[in-house]
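Per reviewer request, we include the raw input and output of the structure prediction for the construct analysed in the revised manuscript.
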Amino acid sequence: MTETTSGPARSSRAKGGGKAAAAAGKGGGLRIERVHTTPGVHPYDEVVWERRDVVMTNWRDGSINFEQRGVEFPDFWTVNAVNIVTSKYFRGAVDTPQRETGLKQLIDRVVQSYRAAGEKHGYFASPADAEIFDHELTYALLHQIFSFNSPVWFNVGTAQPQQVSACFILSVDDSMESILDWYKEEGMIFKGGSGAGLNLSRIRSSKELLSSGGNASGPVSFMRGADASAGTIKSGGATRRAAKMVVLDVDHPDIEAFIETKVKEEEKIRALRDAGFDMDLGGDDITSVQYQNANNSVRVNDEFMKAVESGSKFGLRARMTGEVIEEVEAKELFRKMAEAAWACADPGIQYDDTINRWHTCPESGRINASNPCSEYMHLDNSSCNLASLNLMKFLDDDGQGHQRFDAERFAKVVELVITAMDISICFADFPTQKIGETTRAFRQLGIGYANLGALLMATGHAYDSDGGRALAGAITSLMTSTSYRRSAELAAIVGPYDGYARNADAHKRVMKQHADANAVAPRTDDLDTPVWAAATEAWQDVVRLGEKNGFRNAQASVIAPTGTIGLAMSCDTTGLEPDLALVKFKKLVGGGSMQIVNNTVPQALKRLGYQPEQVEAIVAHIADHGHVIDAPGLKAEHYEVFDCAMGERSISPMGHVRMMAAIQPWVSGALSKTVNMPASAVVEDVEEIYFEAWKMGVKALAIYRENSKVGQPLSAKKKEEKPAEAVAPAVVEKVVEYRPVRKRLPKGRPGITTSFTVGGAEGYMTANSYPDDGLGEVFLKMSKQGSTLAGMMDAFSIAVSVGMQYGVPLETYVSKFTNMRFEPAGLTDDPDVRMAQSIVDYIFRRLALDFLPFETRSALGIHSAPERQRHLDTGSYEQSVEEVEMDVEGLAQSAPRQPEAPKPPLAVAPAPPAAVPAPKQAHTSAELIEIQLGINADAPLCFSCGTKMQRAGSCYICEGCGSTSGCS
């Protein structure tokens, strides 16, 4: 991204640190200093604006699911970011005067609301400070330095309720009235597109008696009703799964039934699938299975974990009296948790004592639950609004391998964002009265970040390394300390949160815990040491100012999945996740996309000391192979820098846990993250992760073992060639001469003339055949006569025609020339080939459709629109065999095709009725990696656009349209 404000000028304006910027003015409000902006110049006037057309289609049937033309965005915004922001965040009905038409309107709608509320409630020392706040916030949003969570963009500045929170925690008591209230409150939150979590441990177990003398139903029974409600609301029109978290304490008498709920349902899914039912995620028959709309977590305490460690018994307690009604072997119960998670990824685990040791408000109640993605943990009936910073925006790189993380500017932006987030609570609406009262009384905030994985790679740090963990910890510590410092400064101006007086001692104790952890954290290199120093100074200020002023906010930070907003900020990685893969898709203006090596890779290589020629060779190797193994000139000790979440070199499960432990001491809440495990992992590996995470001080985590759930599989490996007897013979004329003989066409020959448009370039193709069938020549004419392109197309068509007359099969040309990418490329006017990567790519796809038999085209992954629709309608194996190879007109960009002889067509064989066809087209980076590496993914398909989603923390995100299955 390019910025019109120069680096040196911006740096000089950022000097002064957090203290100067936060100083209270004479009027009692904040004095706001400029960081990125220039006096007298609006941020909008410093960038180049351009008009874009946003057209988003469903890859399954080609239908347009969103279209808005002529939207205005800065020229440096990526196509994907423009598409997502336009389709998700612009308000007003499309094609009406009320519809927003550009980024300026969107940012102004939000920023002006924040500024007005800040002025109204006395946050600023003067109108001039309010204007600087306005400009700085605008600049940071405009340049994708940070983003508020999605509800802010949806609701702020509109006529509808201005809900700003994405995360909610509910509560339920042991009464039917409370249980029914739970159903209602949860349903209202789902209806608004958000998610909620709660702890069911107050509900008496099925082993206890009701006041009437009968047996209680138990919480697992009531979970069925809540799950059905969530599924109904989703199917009633929502575009994503209802997001919910259900927690049960480990000492609840029904804990074993809770642990086994999803395991049993997974077995049911497999049985139904084998019987021929559609049990894919989002399939027609999956709704018959229970407990599929929630993430489940067991809340364990230190007593239980120590019992596991010592091999002793553990007591399960009655909910009404607290007495032990049953004793179990702690190790056996722990084993059952691990077995269930190994089998179906649920339940996750939450460490109750660890969570509550870092609780700032214990006098107001315990922390019992979390939001669906596990990052927000605070009081029952509360909410948290989120915002995340793009860490790559703070990496100063001179292009020669000299880098630094701009801690000073980072702290200034954190202060700005925290101020804005606190202002939002002044005008925010909430889904229930109880949530509104609690949130206004405790003012929980959730600042976080995205792009950590990209930052670590760009700075030459392996994700699973001491240096990588030190830099991540330093940034996290600086972020949270700066947030609490600003919170203390705000308390002096607009007062501490209402619950502070009662919890002052506990809050200050937790601040001291953060500061002490910061003091003993290891420093490793020239990148993290200055950041640690800035964090140390900030924590000293926190302790000093907190003692004097108190704090405005009971909570400051969480690390959220940053699904939609991460894409809107053009981040390579979400939340604290490592990079998914080294090769990804990049969408292009005008349609289409291209496969690229991540921009962070060259930066990392320069940081590691490689010369430009070496960098170029290594990047070329990655483009061809998707990994760094055996890259020319790359030292083996540097391989780990490029380890990703997926791929030939993937990060070990404990590497994920170690990173969580490295940043948890400086996060107010928790971390949304799933620990990825290979399919070969065993139950003992799960036990080790759950146990070591407790030892390391992690608050919560979940594991996901590849292929552990039944879902829409995606086979990444190309089908192996059939035995010779199973292969249909290719229709190729045999030539017995040692040298090829040219077979010329007769004077009169049948032909087809096709007009076409590829990426705006118009042309005509005439394809002539032999009388006994078989293509013999091709003539290509471009609309601009005399141009270089037209001349090259003439020469190219003559060369191809001569080759075919000498006996080169058409399928050989098709296999070689499809997937070639160069401009012009993009959308076409051909319904069978909606997108082409070049004119040559289009030509040979069209020739294949016109002249090759179905079986041959099927082996090459080329199909007509009716054939694709027929496959979608019937779902039969005979139709899905045509998708064995990757279809590039639906495939944004396939893996590089190796120069090998064309594969013979595959024979069509009937498959067992239980087989469910899987798409062999890649539409996201996740699908590309799966196709390359042979990983069967069971992530759901996006309800909006049909693209397979990928994990983002504990949730899923669609790279195509930005839809998420949880917080964003």
